[in-house]
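User: I'll paste a sequence; please echo it back and then give the predicted structure.

Assistant: Echoing your sequence first, then the prediction.
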Amino acid sequence: MWFLVHDLLPLNRPEWFSQNTILRYRAWIAILSRVADGFLCNSRQTDDDLREALTRFHGLSTGYRTQILPMGYVLADGGGTNDTTRPTHARFDMSTPFALMVGTLEPRKGHEDVLHAYDVLWREGHSGRLVLVGRLGWQVDALREEILNHPEYGRKLFWFNDVDDPELVQIYDACTGMIIASHAEGFGLPLIEALGRGKPVLARDLPIFRIHEGNGIRFFPASATPEALAVAVRHWIDEAQAGLIAVSRPESDWGDAARLLLQALEPCAA
């Protein structure tokens, strides 16, 4: 039995999750420590975090295998049922430049930091728009109210919580670039989805994102204030709109992930 692990954040950063989630996650890891033959991890960081957790909490350092799976960036890649070519009616004006954030609204994603940075820009008269795509998560009731009651909501600030793959592709293709402000990630799939669409990325300076350095990413300090982040956003937008950020598409795809998954299981089948 093999299990897919995306991150160890409920163990390592419990303050970002509900008590029920923390308890269930700890129970899940405890069960896996007894029954798993192997673990499929979405990054080297997740692999390292998993091994550390199994040793620290369960005294387990051998008796299992791990395999790192590269994540693909093409939505509906591999012959899925989603048709990313069908026309989608735009719910907002995509002809005017905008920056994009993709991901569930939850504490670790950094939406609040980016919104407050844009507040600084808007007070200075900047015309940039910010589009948020992601379902409502947990522990963000105050952020939800701040977004919905924001004076720029529907003008320079948009939030869509029900976007399907075809519409997401359309939004990726129209955006100036994507901001990923997460305080922690196991991988950060929207980052390579954006690069895969040829879009530059502004990312919080985390080790998990540094592995993509040089592929079209600019970084802002992990502990940046709203004012410092506003400066970084302004410079990044200017560079992106001037075509000064060269973007390299990721090399791996979902086919690579499938092949490595099957290779990991081959010894079990034999």
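The two ends are 14 Å apart (CA to CA). Confidence is low (pLDDT under 50) at residues 77-84.
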